[in-house]
Each structure stands twice: as structure tokens, then as C-alpha cells.
């Protein structure tokens, strides 16, 4: 199912839409926690703190939007309150593991430097994805005349991507070659995630 068509189906059904918002909130929260885990014990930049704080805020904002559908829905991140919970929980974790494996081979880094490299390249890949996902979601929301909006997230994610590129330029002159490899890893994992969500949405619509 084409992504825009999938999102149009999701926003039409309140309980499924709430799960979608909760799933995005879960992933933003997981991203924020991964950024924090990648911090150096002492050499933590302001921009890294800013990213973690903003990803946490996105998680909170998306969670809060669920109240516009029904305040009683999706109060936790329990599997029953997420779409495709297994694929959702594996997506970022698998990207992190596979990217670390590649970056270790490419740069031969120590443990602390590998964490920082993973922060740069994994966050970059996620921001590239967010720059594609949220505008399509906003379009589906606008077409459905929904009270829910993600325009503020779109603006911040665009800023994040620019900041990641600046940091990657400082990290390595040929970062783009390595980032393209990580983007390929992310693309495969994203397709698995979307396929799992598509199957579940189809099942829920016919339930």
C-alpha cells in the first residue's frame, strides 16, 4: 500500500489513529533515549542535549495529540497500544546495531568514539526519514480536516537535519559515502516496519 494511502486510512479510524500517534511517540522517545545513551561521560555538546530534549518533546507532543481523539486511549507504550509493536521496537534497535557494525569496520573506533559516530549517522538517517514521513502525515491530516497537526515537528526536524550535516562535516570529510550506507540499512528496516503496519491496519479495519 502506498504510504500516503496508508496514512489516509489510518487517520479515518480514531482508535487506529491513536495507536499510530502513540507509535510515533514511542519512536521519538526511543530516539531521545538513544541519543542520551550515546553521550560522552563529560564531553557532551549543547547540540546533543538540544536534540535529546527536542525528541523527548516530540514524544510528549504526539502523546498529547491522542487526547484530541479520545483521552482514554493509548496511555502507555504497552504492545496492545502500538501498531506493529514488534517491528516498531526492533526498527531503531536494529538500525543502531547494524550501523555500529558498519561504522566499526569503516573507522575502527574505540567504544566511546563509536557511540558518538552512531549518534551522528543513526540520527542523520532518522532525520532524513522524518523529513519524508511527517509532511506526508500532515498532508493526510489536512485532507481529513483533522484537529491534529505535526507542522511544528516538521520545522524542528528540518533544523535537526541541517545540524546533523554540520556535525558530520566535522567528523569526516567523506561522511556522505558512509551515511549513504547507513541510509540503505535504514531503508530496508523502514520498509519492514511499514509493511508490518500496513498488515495490521488491514486486519484492524476488517476486524
Describe the structure.
- With 207 residues, this protein is mainly α.
- Helices cover 79% and strands 0% of the residues.
- The protein contains seven helices and no strands.
- It has helices at 3-12, 14-37, 46-65, 85-107, 111-143, 151-171, 175-206.
- Helix 5 packs across helix 7 (175-206).
- The longest helix has 33 residues, at 111-143.
- The chain is globular, with a radius of gyration of 17 Å.
- The two termini are 19 Å apart.
What descriptive keywords fit this protein?
single chain, 207 residues, mainly alpha, 0% strand
Kindly state the number of beta strands: 0
N-to-C SSE string, H for helix and E for strand: HHHHHHH
* Cα separation of the termini: 19 Å
Please state the average pLDDT score. 94
- Percentage of helical residues? over 70%
Q: If you compute it from the alpha carbons, what radius of gyration comes out, rounded to the nearest whole angstrom?
A: 17 Å
What can be said about this structure in brief?
The protein has 207 residues and is mainly α. The chain is built from seven helices and no strands. Helix 4 (85-107) packs across helix 5 (111-143) and helix 4 packs antiparallel against helix 7.
Q: How is the secondary structure organized here?
A:
Blueprint: H1 3-12, H2 14-37, H3 46-65, H4 85-107, H5 111-143, H6 151-171, H7 175-206
Helix pairs in contact: 1-5, 2-3, 2-4, 3-6, 4-5, 4-7, 5-6, 5-7
Protein name: Rubrerythrin
InterPro entries: Ferritin-like_SF
Organism: Chryseobacterium sediminis
